[in-house]
Amino acid sequence: MQRRAFLISAATLVAVPQLGLAADPAPERVFYSPGVVETALAEGKVVFLDFWASWCSTCAAQDRVMAALKAQNPAYAQKVTFITVDWDDYGRAPIARDLNIPRRSTLVALQGDTELGRIVAGTARDDIKALMDKALNAAR
Fold first, then answer.
1. To bridge 106 with a disulfide, which of 2, 26, 51, 99 should be the other Cys (CB 3.0-4.6 Å)?
2. Is residue 114 part of a domain?
């Protein structure tokens, strides 16, 4: 009986995304393109970079945490510029090299020429919240 329940659950997990029923945890995702970070920083904005890959399970876990935190506190999205850097497209680009980004699933908060902090492959809610709070406090 447990095997049947497992097989039904597994089939559901496979079918739901293909039906388009799975929600993107970051539907408001703004993707990086060359110049967008520099422009935002020059305008005095605090930038929160998410070095992400669609196939990365750690990135997905980070997305879920950030989406929940943004839902709890809309000021994050209102005052901080969140930019997703697609690792497959820009993992070897100047943006990643200049910031010494070691891998996808790296989160970095920037203000002007200053790095406010970073998380590499971390998914702990408290750590991500602390970095987002640091960015939010710098944006005020």
1. 51
2. yes
- Give the C-alpha separation, 42 to 38, whole Å: 6
Judge whether 12 lies within some domain: no
Q: How far apart are CA 72 and CA 65, in angstroms?
A: 11
Q: Is residue 71 part of a domain?
A: yes
8 lies in some domain:
no
How many domains in the chain? Answer: 1
Query: Is there a contact between 131 and 50 (Cβ–Cβ < 8 Å)?
Result: no
CA dist., res. 69 & res. 61, Å (int): 13
C-alpha closest to that of 65 among 138, 17, 135, 126: 126
The model carries a pTM of 0.81
Domain that holds residue 63: 24-139
Structure tokens at 13: 């997990």
Residue 100 CA from chain centroid, whole number = 17
CATH number at residue 123: 3.40.30.10
Residue type, 83: I
Please return the burial class of 107, using the count of CB atoms within 10 Å of its CB with bins 0-12, 13-18 and 19+.
buried
